[in-house]
Structures are given as C-alpha cells and as structure tokens.
Amino acid sequence: MGEILKFEELYNAYLLCLKNKKRKTGTFNFVNSNLSQNLISLLDSLNNRTYKPLASNCYVITEPALREIYAAQFRDRVVQHFYMKEIEEILDKKLVDGCCSCRKGKGTDYALSLLKNYLVETSNNGKKDCYFLKIDLSGYFMSIDRKQISDKFEKLIIQEYTGKHKGLLLYLTPIIFENNPAQNCKYKCNEDVRNKVPERRKMNPKSEYGMAIGNLTAQAASNLNLNDFDNYIVKELKLEQYVRYVDDAIIICENKEKLKNAIPKIKKKLKETHQILNEKKTKIDTAYHGVKFLGKISYPYGYQKSSKDVNIRLNYKAKNIKFNSKENLLAKVNSQIGTFKNYNCRKVILNYEKNLNKSAKDKLVLDKIELKFKNII
Fold first, then answer.
1. What's the CA gap between 300 and 127, in Å, rounded?
2. Is residue 59's pLDDT more than 90?
3. CA–CA dist 251, 130 (Å, integer)
C-alpha cells in the first residue's frame, strides 16, 4: 500500500490550489465550512483508497472559440495538485524542449521566443529562404483516449517515480485520467449558448474519449499524450526547430520539400493517439510574410507583433471592462496588456487606453514609458 499520506503534505497541496482562487465560491465553501475537517476527510479517503471525484461544473467560454470547460470541485483540485507535485519533475524530463504549454519556466512567451530564434537562425536574420509547417489538430482534447493516457502515466510512475507515494499515485491515476467529467456534471452556463458549441468541442458522457479542459492534470495529459509524436518529429524526422503549445505546433525549416514529405508521416504517427490534422489550418508557407502562432505574428528578422483578431478582442475588453474596485480594475487592465509589452505592441497598448470606457479612464492613467497603468491619486 505504501507510505501513509501525511496531513502536512495534503495541506501543502491545498495551499498550491488556493493560490489565485480565494474568491471562487467552491473555494470559499471548502475553506469556511470547517477547513480542517474537510482536509482530514479528504486525507482519510486517499489513505483508505475510497476517494472518488465529485461532479464537475460545466461552463462555456466564447473566446477564442466556443467550447465547453469542465472545472473539478475544489477538493478534487487539491488532489490534482498533490498528484502533479509528485510527478511534475519526472514528467518534465520526458518532454522535448519545444513542448511549451503548462511547464515551469516555459509558456507562451517561451514558445514565441523559441520560434523567433528559430526563424532568425534559419533565415540568417531574413536573408535566406525560410519556410514553416503549421500543424493544427482537430478537436484535440475531445479526442484524447483516456485509458491510453492513463496507461502512459501509470508506466511513467512505475518506471521513473522514486518517491514514497508510488502506491497512492498508481491508485489515483485511473481515477483522475479515466474519469468522464461530463457524467453527472452540473451545468453552470446558459443552455442556448451551450447548444451553439460545436459537437467536436463537447464531451460525450458515454464516450471513452475526451479530457476536461481546465483541470491541471488535463494540461499534463495534453503534453504526455503527444510526447511520442514530439520525439518522432525532432529525433526521427530530424525537424529539430519544433515548437508545440497544446494542439498548435510550428516547424521551421529551410527546405520546403522536406516539410511537404513530412506531412504523410505526421498523419500516420498521429493515428497512434487517435488525432487527425485540421486540414484547413495545417499549411506550409514562406516565413517571409510572417508566422501566426499563439496570437502573435513572427517574422524572420526578429520582429513580432500581435495578430489582428487579438487586437480586436483586446479593444472589445477595453470597452466592456467590468470591475468592483479600483484595485480590481488596475489588476485587470495590466493583466490584459501585460504580455503585449514584449511584442512591438506600443501602438496596440495606446489604442487600448483610447478605447477604455469612461469609468475606467477616470480612475487610471497609462505610464507611456513603462507601458503600465497606474491609479490616479
């Protein structure tokens, strides 16, 4: 059975889970309805191997596209944080450098920086021909085989984990990854809006496929699920200038024919994990006109800017921003423009300031040197 999980260990996972979630209703209820007893009850269920996830909440988001999001209950997110804290290091060692989503020290900024470096290096700062293959997967999260990914995590733990909770992790693996959150979920969204979500972006309560977008463990699953594919691209096809963020991937190469020849092999390899290419969004083109990736457009001479659709969404947020306090407003606006400072987006930020609604403008001023909003004293 392995070593007993201690209260302090679960409490540390609780603290990780609590970060930036204090205002959520589920968090408030867990914390304020006898926190110690709630944690002890959860601890007992884990040590006694009687733990079962509660019903998830289902939401619908509209940006960047209509899709369902499933959120686990707070107690279940605590378990997910414990699980990921135990395996994060061994999982990270398995992943290629170009896999950038939901990893410490990586993320969208790292992915875009990596892409910029590849473009500049391959094109000799825009002086040589340079091409890209953009790979887009159709309905990625909803086509993940839950049993297959559960088996991959089980194998990872058996072969690589050297900690004291191997038994507990092996017990939790199928519970976490084979659970279908669409079963008995609680819908927290407008029914009319939910009916507009395309079927490929919905979870089927009766299907063995699909991973809940929004869960910490689902993000890890999205990385491990395509790890063999990532290694195939980099090590076997020798296309080493490769960047992937969840289901979007870019390969940079000076040889256009090499990219063309890779597509049939890529399709075949993706069948192993039941993935298919989105033919409309998968393409080969010259990098001269820019490479659109993660809401930014990158050029061979190192210039990066935000895409038109991202600018439109940003201005919409400026016009419709809602807040309940001056401090909340300041945090929101600086969060919305935060990453734009790194991507030649001075004009975009100035336009954002121009489009802010009057109630926000009366409380904030933009420091045009630091490109950061400050409260009006």
1. 8
2. no
3. 11
- Dihedral angle over CA of 346, 350, 353, 354, nearest 10: -160
Residue 205: is the preceding peptide bond cis (ω within 30°)?
no
Pick from 142, 182, 132, 172: nearest CA to 284:
132
d(CA 265, CA 260): 10
The alpha-helical segments, DSSP class H, found in 186-255 are 191-195, 216-225, 227-231
What rounded mean pLDDT belongs to the chain? 90
- Give the predicted TM-score (pTM) of the model: 0.87
- What's the pLDDT tens digit per position in 141-195? 888 999 999 999 999 999 999 999 999 999 999 999 998 888 888 887 777 777 7
> Quick one: how many helices (H) and strands (E) in the chain?
15, 12
Query: Which amino acid, 184?
Result: N
* CA distances, 88 to each of 72, 83, 150, 156 (Å): 20, 8, 15, 11
String of DSSP letters for 166-188: HHHHHHHHHHHHS--TTTT-EE-
